[in-house]
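Is this the right way to post structure tokens for a design question? Let me know if I should format differently. Anyway, here goes:
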């Protein structure tokens, strides 16, 4: 009877995986998959980790329900241990997604909006970093009195191949 406690856990994991799949499909359909992967590799890595953790309860439930013995074990997996591992995997997935904001939604329209919001946020962050770098370079130039700035005069230097 304790093994049926995994049904709600599996339902939550299924909808979590479905929302993540929708998000990445929207990013891909908009043509920003490489851009998001390049600008936010931690986002991709976190989603891969969450997907792995959300998929593990399905494997644990299959091992428990079908009586598959694991390697180096004398007997079957205890249903209490299987339920505990499933809850732990789901808790780890939710904990890893605590900073996801509104990326995931229950419908396609909300998912598209979350994907657009993610791409816009990444572009705003890049623009802010560029503005800070330019302001820092301007201050450095003003402080040290550089005549020509950071540009190299082409007429002054000869470049040979």
């Amino acid at each position: 009877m304790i093994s049926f406690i995994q049904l709600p856990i599996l339902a939550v994991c299924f909808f979590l995986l479905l929302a993540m799949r929708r998000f990445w499909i929207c990013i891909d359909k908009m043509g920003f998959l490489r851009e998001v992967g390049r600008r936010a590799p931690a986002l991709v890595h976190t989603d891969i980790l969450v997907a792995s953790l959300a998929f593990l309860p399905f494997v644990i439930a299959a091992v428990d329900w079908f009586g598959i013995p694991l390697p180096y074990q004398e007997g079957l997996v205890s249903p209490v241990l299987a339920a505990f591992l499933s809850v732990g995997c789901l808790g780890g997935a939710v904990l890893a997604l605590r900073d996801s904001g509104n990326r995931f939604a229950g419908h396609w329209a909300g998912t598209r909006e979350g994907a657009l919001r993610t791409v816009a946020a990444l572009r705003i962050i890049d623009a802010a970093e560029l503005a800070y770098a330019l302001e820092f370079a301007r201050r450095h130039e003003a402080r040290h009195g550089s005549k020509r700035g950071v540009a190299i005069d082409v007429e002054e230097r000869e470049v040979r191949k």
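Format looks fine. Someone answered above. Worth noting: The radius of gyration is 25 Å. Residues 108-144 form the longest helix (37 residues).
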